[in-house]
Structures are given as structure tokens and as C-alpha cells.
Amino acid sequence: MPRLFIAIDLPEVVKAQLTALCSGFPGARWVPPEQLHLTLRFIGDADDRQLAQLQVRLAAISLPRFCLSLQKTGCFPSARQPRVLWISIQKVPALFQLVTDIEHAVTATGFPTEHRPYTPHITLARLKDGQPEDFAAYQAKHADLSPTPFAVNEFHLYASILTRDGAIHRRKGTFPLTIDGGT
């Protein structure tokens, strides 16, 4: 059974900017450039019936296109215990409306509600033994990041298949945003 998630793909110019950030942190397992994306909702395991229902509900979302921009580096769960290195995304109302509409589609399909608040970010690396001083040095090195804004014209439903060599992401649907929210 595939594990599903919904995401925004990044333009190549943004992936190139992010790839330039993928060094200088001891012991980091960097996300490959082709897998960099902005997750909107992780769903988990789904059968074929759930997948089909979800595709129909996601296709019914009608929202306008919008722009986003990268912000600054951060980590989860905290700077004292860095385990996931990420870059934040500009918090714009259109992004949160899209996440809200996706959440309604996901729960209407029968998946559990996501209770954690949405934190828009792109995962850059996973850290086995991240140290606070390494994170502080990394963050200082990239404090003057000046990213290029990028347009969001669509979002995607992916199936993630775990293998010994890492996850393989297969697109299961593309859902365009409209030009003016109604056409």
C-alpha cells in the first residue's frame, strides 16, 4: 500500500538555490534535489478506493494561483536538538487557504484530521546526531539568503514507496490552481 502525500513542486531555479544550501552540516543526510518539495499534507497508507476518492475531491479545489518565497533556515524539533534541517516558506494567506481546502478533502475521504498546526517548510536534510553549535554555524552562514519568489500554479498528489535506497515518489495526480479563483 503506498503512502500518500500532497505537495507543491519547486521550479528548477529554486531547487538550485536549495541545493547550494546542502553542505556544511556534519553528518547530514541531504535530500536529493529531485525530491525537494513543499509538503502540504502527509496522509499515509491508502488503498486504491481511497486514492480514487481523494483524487476526485482534490480536483474540486478551486483557488487562485499565488507566489511564495523561501525565508530562513530552521530545524525540528529545536535548535538544542536539531534532527531535521529545513528552510521556511513565506506565510501567505493563499497557501493556508490551500492547506485548509486540502485538509477538508483529505478528511472527507475518511483520513484522520491533522491536529498539528501547519508549518510551511522544505526539508533539506535529516540529522542523526545534530549538534546545537553545528546548527548555529549553519544558520549564521546562510543568514543573508536572498531567494527568488516563485509562482504556485498547481499542486500534486504523490505516492511514496520506501526502498532500501530511499523513497521513490510517484505522481498520482496534478491539480491546477485557477487564474482568478473561479475559471
Can you give a write-up of this model?
The protein is α+β, with helices and mostly antiparallel strands and 183 residues long. It has one domain: Cyclic Phosphodiesterase, Chain: A (Alpha-Beta Complex), CATH 3.90.1140.10. It has four helices and ten strands. A four-stranded antiparallel β-sheet has the order 3-1-9-10. β9 and β10 form a beta hairpin. The protein is globular. The mean pLDDT is 92.
Q: What are the SSEs and their pairings?
A:
Layout: E1 3-9, H1 12-20, E2 28-30, E3 37-45, H2 48-59, E4 66-68, E5 70-78, E6 81-89, H3 93-108, E7 121-127, H4 132-141, E8 150-152, E9 154-163, E10 166-176
Antiparallel strand pairs: 1-3, 1-9, 2-7, 4-8, 5-6, 6-7, 9-10
Please bin the fraction of helical residues: 25-40%
State the major sheet.
4 strands, antiparallel
For the biggest β-sheet, the strand order reads: 3-1-9-10
The rounded distance between the terminal residues' Cα atoms is 35 Å
* Number of DSSP E strands: 10
Our count of helices gives 4
Per the CATH scheme, the topology name is: Cyclic Phosphodiesterase, Chain: A
Mean pLDDT, to the nearest integer, reads 92
Coarse morphology: globular
CATH homology superfamily: Cyclic phosphodiesterase
Number of domains as seen in the coordinates: 1
Q: State Rg.
A: 17 Å
- The chain-level structural class is alpha+beta
Question: Uncertain regions: pLDDT < 50 for 5+ in a row?
Answer: none
Could you give the order of the helices and strands? EHEEHEEEHEHEEE
Under CATH at level 1, the class stands as Alpha Beta
Please identify, by name, the CATH architecture. Answer: Alpha-Beta Complex
Instruction: Report the portion of residues in β strands.
Output: 35-45%
Keywords: Hydrolase
Active site: 37, 121
Function: Hydrolyzes RNA 2',3'-cyclic phosphodiester to an RNA 2'-phosphomonoester.
Protein name: RNA 2',3'-cyclic phosphodiesterase
